[in-house]
Predict the structure.
Amino acid sequence: MMKETPVIEEFLNYLKFERHFSPHTAKCYAADLAQFSAFLVGDTAAAVGRQNFMGAASSTHMSVGGQPADVGTAVLVKPQLQQKLRDADTEQIKLFLVFLGTQNYSKSTVARKLATLRSFYKFCLRRGYVKAHPLSTIRTPKQEKRLPKFLELEQITKLLSTPDDNTLLGARDKAMLEVLFSTGVRVSELVDLNFTDMDVEGQAIRVRGKGKKQRTSPIGPTALAAIQKYLQLRRTDSRSTNFDQSALFVNKHGQRLSTRSVRRKLDKYLAECGLDPTISPHTLRHSFATHMLNRGADLRSVQELLGHQSLSTTQVYTHLTAPRLKAVYDDAHPRA
């Protein structure tokens, strides 16, 4: 028997409150389910993204924790959609895959959408909302292996020296970039840092990763010095009493910095120092892992520092480091 709460909303709340998914990840799941819902009810325009999907028989929005799941993806749930979601079978999933193929999505995007549906129907199966998993016999398309982009040390030096750390916001930006490269934390983990997460004497920070799993990450003296300079300027700022007193990094209004703000700041400095504008905060994470391995760190240690659940996720960096290590060996042992 279905509960009064629409099953998609219940699933999204499960992701947030029980699985502790980030708001960004939950929005991606919501958008994928909105597209699949539009496909099921034949709303082609919404399924291809030309308009929002609106199932106008009800005023119940898909949400996460009482908040809209995605701005611009207002999904209204109607009874016939609930039934169609429960009745979806393998053939309908295959038809959805055919539809996705007509939209020229990359294999990685199709794989993500399938992963969303797998998680959703696994949830429905456990709750007794469906009798069988419609994706049990469907394989995920084989994806192209793309090596992560990373920065050379001279590029890192150029980027980190760009912010003017004589100003409060410049010092904050330099400290943020230093922390990203020194620790390899995700940008979501960076903005989540509090004062209490800092261990200056131990040269470490406490990081809250995916699924609220905590880990301790060493932090270099240069990054620590950048943080301390930022905090010194922050303490002497006339507005500091109105700043968020728990957040380590705040915006110009004194509120906790957002991941989007970090990306905007990075884009600004990339333009100023003439580096590739497609570099993202995650590129600094890739750079951290690559340089750690190049310096002799073992794969398991890098896995722990990055907070990867599976070692296979970390192994992608060996494709970047192996040729370089071979070149170093060849230089040290030239052939006669």
